[in-house]
Amino acid sequence: MLTEDLALHTDKYQINMMYAHWHLGTHERKAVFEAYFRKLPFGNGYAVFAGLERIVHYISNLRFTEEDIQYLAEQEENYDLGFLEELRTFQFRGTIHSMKEGALVFPGEPLIRVEARMMEAQLVETAILNFMNFQTLISTKASRIKQIAGQDMLLEFGTRRAQEADAAVWGARAAYIAGFHATSNMLAGKKFGIPTKGTHAHSWVQSFESEQESFDAYAKVLPDQVSLLVDTFDTLESGVPHAIQTGKYLASIGKELAAIRLDSGDLAYLSIEARKMLDEAGLPNVKIVASNDLDENTILNLKAQGARIDTWGVGTQLITAADQPSLGGVYKLVERDVDGEMKPTIKISGNPEKVSTPGKKDVYRIIDRTSGKALADYICFPDEEQPREGGPIKLLNPQHSYLQKTIRNYEAIPMLEPIFVDGIQVYVLPVLEAIRDYHKEQLNLFWPQYLRKMNPEIFRVNISEKVWDLKKSMMAEYMQEEDI
Ligand SMILES: Nc1ncnc2c1ncn2[C@@H]1O[C@H](COP(=O)(O)OP(=O)(O)OP(=O)(O)O)[C@@H](O)[C@H]1O
Ligand SMILES: O=P(O)(O)OC[C@H]1O[C@H](OP(=O)(O)OP(=O)(O)O)[C@H](O)[C@@H]1O
Ligand SMILES: O=C(O)c1cccnc1
């Protein structure tokens, strides 16, 4: 899955534009695109950036195979053969900057910046958005669940209900980045080194003459980490007593029953009762796992009811981001080569939030030196020195430009890392554990009001005066042109 041929994993309109640029001789012109989203998912206060690892593999392996070229030739008989020849030697030769996976990110700021030949910058839009949008969405959903679960163990159980294999495997990774502890997906475990965990299905119990027999047989043969599903017939009348009997047997041979799993009914009530029964039977170390369409809301509710659940198995709601199944990340042209000079470009819209911000931009996270906490994100042009040199910067809210304040005692952390420079990968992909640690560090930079699940405080993304002046002047230019 890491070295797939994905050159044709793009929308046809990209190929159309590549062809048209090639025909006009503009395909080698430089262009700068930025990927960002406008609205946070799930009413959350932040999103968790993910998808970079897959994007790096995609860009590094981006070649048109002979079959791809053959297919294109069959699709468009009238293609100039020179275009297909161009594709034969195609490689990504541009420069990409990106947020690091695990970073907390916000609306309106560039998450990925692509500087490349028009033809290649256009080709990669679809795949970059596809990877970034899905994985960032799942990491964000997982992070919400993690905020509620606290120190409890979180297991990712979504594969069977995911939107196909890639979503399951990369979704498991996205969940792990945001703090899940393990996945049930063995391929994700193998590919990424994520710890794997599993109990057993109802079918195991059903395939025996009795529940007790099924538990005993399972416990005898499984080498360790025996977890028994106790709701096949009747949780408290049958499942838990039978599990206790198996637990006692395991204790008698020096082993330990690891957990029981509840998968239906009133999980609060059942967990409280099951806990009592296990404790009274001398099995206080046996953990209680719960599953059944859980998400951050049900987990919060169950905790409020005093549920005695140690481990949460979360599938469908997480892997499908059921309450908001897509992140609307977009990829916009911000600068283009006009006769050898890079010029800003803007996309105008009747909806002010949809007007793009022209020019190639950097993103800094501004940290208050006194509290050590993030104050705002700051977007400016690469040639603006102030954040790098610690000079006073004016924080200006683009939606409400009358709201401004000047700050001096800050540290500015550049958020966009160089990933590829002129086609060469310069970024060493971190191991997954380092990404998880980075995510935790990121969370620590924010006051709790930005992190809470419900009605969070809005974290400000500010633009420099220069960026704002350019945007205003370009908007005015286009508005004037439209004047009647
Ligand atoms: N005490 C509780 N408070 C709030 N929600 C709960 C509580 N107990 C269970 N739930 C949730 O309520 C929903 C119950 O779903 P549903 O009615 O489909 O399950 P069920 O009938 O118990 O089991 P089955 O999966 O066998 O149909 C699940 O999302 C579950 O996580
Ligand atoms: O509810 P989710 O959050 O998606 O978690 C995964 C669900 O998948 C399994 O059910 P399923 O009925 O598919 O299989 P089973 O027979 O093993 O219960 C498991 O028992 C969970 O209920
Ligand atoms: O291990 C489990 O209990 C499990 C795995 C996948 C889906 N549901 C449950």
Automatic annotation (TrEMBL):
A GO cellular component annotation in the UniProt record: cytosol
Keywords: Glycosyltransferase, Ligase, Phosphoprotein, Pyridine nucleotide biosynthesis, Transferase
UniProt xrefs under InterPro entries: Aldolase_TIM (IPR013785), N/Namide_PRibTrfase (IPR041525), NAPRTase_C (IPR041619), NAPRTase_N (IPR040727), Nic_PRibTrfase-Fam (IPR007229), Nic_PRibTrfase_pncB (IPR006405), Nicotinate_pribotase-like_C (IPR036068)
Domain Nicotinate phosphoribosyltransferase C-terminal: 360-471
Record's comment on post-translational modification: Transiently phosphorylated on a His residue during the reaction cycle. Phosphorylation strongly increases the affinity for substrates and increases the rate of nicotinate D-ribonucleotide production. Dephosphorylation regenerates the low-affinity form of the enzyme, leading to product release.
Biological processes annotated in GO: NAD+ biosynthetic process via the salvage pathway
UniProt entry tagged with the keyword Chaperone: no
Protein EC: 6.3.4.21
SUPFAM superfamilies assigned: Nicotinate/Quinolinate PRTase C-terminal domain-like (SSF51690), Nicotinate/Quinolinate PRTase N-terminal domain-like (SSF54675)
Source organism superkingdom: Bacteria
Nicotinate/nicotinamide phosphoribosyltransferase domain mapped to chain residues: 154-345
Domain (Nicotinate phosphoribosyltransferase N-terminal) ranges: 8-133
Major enzyme class: ligase
Catalytic activity: 5-phospho-alpha-D-ribose 1-diphosphate + nicotinate + ATP + H2O = nicotinate beta-D-ribonucleotide + ADP + phosphate + diphosphate
UniProt function note: Catalyzes the first step in the biosynthesis of NAD from nicotinic acid, the ATP-dependent synthesis of beta-nicotinate D-ribonucleotide from nicotinate and 5-phospho-D-ribose 1-phosphate.
Protein name: Nicotinate phosphoribosyltransferase
